[in-house]
Amino acid sequence: MIKVMVVDDHALIRKGIILLLKMNQEIEIVGEAGDGEEAILLALKEKPDVILMDLSMPNGVDGFAAAMNIRRQLPACKIILLTMHDEEIYVQKAIEVGAHGYILKKSQGGELNEAILTVLRGERFYRTGIPQEQLQKMFDKKGKKSSILTMREQEIVRLTILGFTNVQIAEKLFISSKTVENHKANIMQKLELKSKHELIRYGIQNHYLDLTV
């Protein structure tokens, strides 16, 4: 039997995925979780073969963070990210955290079974709107990181990616909001970026979500 765990903060979606998977008699559902922290604890207890993991979850531990944590502690476990996000920055981050698969929630139910069997064979399963040639280049770039920013600047990039405002960043780092603005201006100048979207893209591609602030 293939031991599978399902992680999604929406109970109805979670139950729907489980119902689809139960149609395959070779799959055993060993657990379900509603947030990243719960997923980590449950994975360590049940040691599933495969985890289907949502990305956007509450309580501070998203699917990326949970996937990295679980992979460190259970290297044999295969993680497939199941999400509504088809943007390149999310796919790039999935590659960087070592996710074995990436499926969109709008996919057909049969792809779940195909993805599970594929990753168990040691192959990756990425089904996104990104062309295969571009996707391969993203895999080829895995692990490359620039150190052009200071640690404080990297902290600010990370918090910006997570959606914090300048005022919230200032409170978290015990500095003034004006100082945050100055740091952001320096960051944008160093990286030759023109928009917040470009900054978020850069931060994800260069692993700044991995920092502990």
Automatic annotation (TrEMBL):
Any GO BP annotation: regulation of DNA-templated transcription
Modified residues (4-aspartylphosphate): D54
The keyword Transcription regulation belongs to this UniProt entry's keyword annotation: yes
Pfam families, sorted: GerE, Response_reg
InterPro entries hit by this protein: CheY-like_superfamily, NreC/VraR/RcsB-like_REC, Sig_transdc_resp-reg_C-effctor, Sig_transdc_resp-reg_receiver, Tscrpt_reg_LuxR_C, WalR-like
Top-rank taxon, per record: Bacteria
UniProt entry tagged with the keyword DNA-binding: yes
Domain annotation Response regulatory: ranges: 3-120
Alphabetized UniProt keyword annotations: DNA-binding, Phosphoprotein, Transcription, Transcription regulation
Gene Ontology MF terms in the entry: DNA binding
Domain HTH luxR-type, chain residue ranges per copy: 142-207
Protein name stated in the entry: DNA-binding response regulator
